[in-house]
Specification:
single chain; nine-stranded mixed β-sheet; five-stranded mixed β-sheet; globular; alpha/beta
């Protein structure tokens, strides 16, 4: 029997903190962005904040956790060290029945961590220390880990480091060899800006499924509005999923566009994980052979649930 979905991404422990807009200004942080920082800056920021909550995170890992929440079959590969954060990370996946296929290692670098600053408008701004997660290399991927899955889901964030980029290409090679569909998230608008040309080539030549929000898609296509982006994407003939916050979501497949409304919620507490959990709902239905509309609807339901709590995981 084939396994369902394997996620490969940065293994990051999330550290949640409530701040005001002045804090972001004072620390020269762009609201809603993800900034990569070194260990020293991470420790410096950590010393000035009051931690609300710590939980295992990472974009693709959150998606795998969401699939497990829906009783789906999900596995994850990410690199951790055998330190305190590494132990928290591994335990958190085992607890929710996500198969973790990477053994922790001894290394000079610590397990990756991300400080997530939540402002009163529920927007989240992230400062991420990748640590050992950024060292996920081709040598860490065993072909036996890959075989038998229907989909491999990669995050755009992985393209940020040379070593990880090589690993990314190797995974695509193995997926093609083993007839596995390749899906990717665009991750972050700044990530798209840095790697737009590479991401567009991946979409045309390698990916079966691409998922991103409206701003990321427009940045990828170098368009000012979604309609223009969608008209060009229709020609590419891949499954492309676009999330639009309160404006719902869109799927493009075989020159057809499917729209889905968002689910209204009473109170938004934290937008962390909204896109990750949307992807979880979508992929769970997709793997169950549901139609595209139902995939979008289940994605919307999970996204609506996660924004009503702090953190990127559903209990």
């Amino acid at each position: 029997m084939s396994k369902k979905i394997l996620g490969i991404g940065n293994a990051i422990v999330d550290v949640f903190v409530k701040v005001d807009d002045d804090f972001l200004l004072k620390n020269n942080l762009t609201k809603g962005s993800m900034k990569l920082i070194e260990k020293q800056e991470f420790e410096s920021l950590k010393s000035t904040i009051k931690i609300e909550k710590i939980e295992a995170g990472g974009s693709v890992a959150n998606t795998m956790a969401g699939i497990a929440y829906l009783k789906g079959d999900a596995s994850f590969i990410g690199k951790i060290k055998s330190d305190e954060f590494g132990k928290i990370y591994k335990k958190s996946l085992e607890k929710i029945n996500v198969s973790f296929l990477y053994p922790e290692k001894e290394d000079n670098l610590s397990t990756g961590a991300s400080i997530i600053f939540i402002t009163p408008d529920s927007e989240r701004t992230m400062c991420t220390y990748l640590g050992i997660s950024s060292q996920l290399a081709k040598e860490d991927i065993n072909e036996d880990y890959i075989k038998g899955y229907e989909i491999i889901f990669l995050e755009g964030y992985l393209w940020d480091k040379g070593m990880c980029e090589e690993m990314f290409k190797y995974v695509i090679e193995l997926a093609k060899k083993n007839n596995i569909k390749i899906a990717m998230s665009l991750s972050d608008i700044f990530c798209v800006t840095r790697h737009r040309e590479d991401f567009f080539k991946l979409l045309k030549n390698d990916l079966n499924i691409l998922i991103g929000n409206e701003n990321e898609i427009n940045e990828l296509m170098q368009k000012n509005n979604l309609l223009d982006s969608m008209n060009e994407l229709k020609i590419i003939n891949k499954l492309i999923i676009i999330t639009r916050s309160e404006n719902g979501s869109v799927a493009i497949l075989n020159n057809e566009i499917t729209n889905c409304e968002s689910i209204k919620v009473d109170k938004v507490l934290d937008l962390t994980g909204a896109g990750d959990l949307f992807a979880a709902g979508f992929f769970k239905e997709y793997l169950d052979k549901s139609n595209v509309k139902k995939c979008l609807q289940t994605g919307s339901k999970l996204a609506a649930k996660i924004i009503q709590k702090i953190g990127g995981r559903l209990n």
